[in-house]
Design a protein that fits this description.
The chain is α+β, with helices and mostly antiparallel strands. It is built from five helices and six strands, in the order ααβααβββββα. It folds into two domains: 75 residues, Arc Repressor Mutant, subunit A, CATH 1.10.10.10; 52 residues, Dna Ligase, domain 1, CATH 3.30.1490.190.
């Protein structure tokens, strides 16, 4: 399914800016809002930062994009959704890398006490120092 069809299926209007956001996030690597905005402007020209924020929020809410918020870092977006993966974050440079869950299907981890919740997702962030920063 193409980006326009994904937007329509999610009940969102298809606009040049939204298509550019989807393509920018998909082509990027855990981009923050400023990086997404730059990529969108390269693709379609002038677009306001607020319009990018609003669209990212709508696409995240619709399940088209995943928003991650590593501690001490601005929110970042990725197009890898609906699977069972987590993230590695470098403490020095802030690079974020996907890592598949090693224990099976979502939520892949169960809390010791679910307090009555029906758990359907676990969001795990591993912290360390990336290979580039180790050099």
């Amino acid at each position: 399914m193409g980006d326009a069809d994904l937007l329509r299926h999610a009940g969102l209007r298809v606009t040049a800016a939204r298509l550019a956001i989807m393509r920018t996030v998909r082509a990027g690597d855990h981009l923050d809002v400023d990086a997404v905005c730059r990529g969108v402007r390269e693709r379609v020209g002038q677009v306001s930062l607020q319009a990018v924020y609003d669209s990212l929020h709508a696409m995240h809410r619709a399940g088209l994009l995943r928003k991650i918020e590593p501690m001490g870092s601005p929110a970042r977006y990725e197009a890898r959704v609906g699977d069972n993966h987590h993230h590695l974050v470098c403490r020095r440079c802030g690079t974020v890398t996907d890592v598949d869950c090693a224990t099976g299907v979502a939520p892949c981890l169960d809390p010791v006490d679910s307090a009555g919740y029906l758990v359907d997702e676990a969001d795990i962030t591993f912290w360390g120092v990336c290979p580039s920063c180790q050099r």
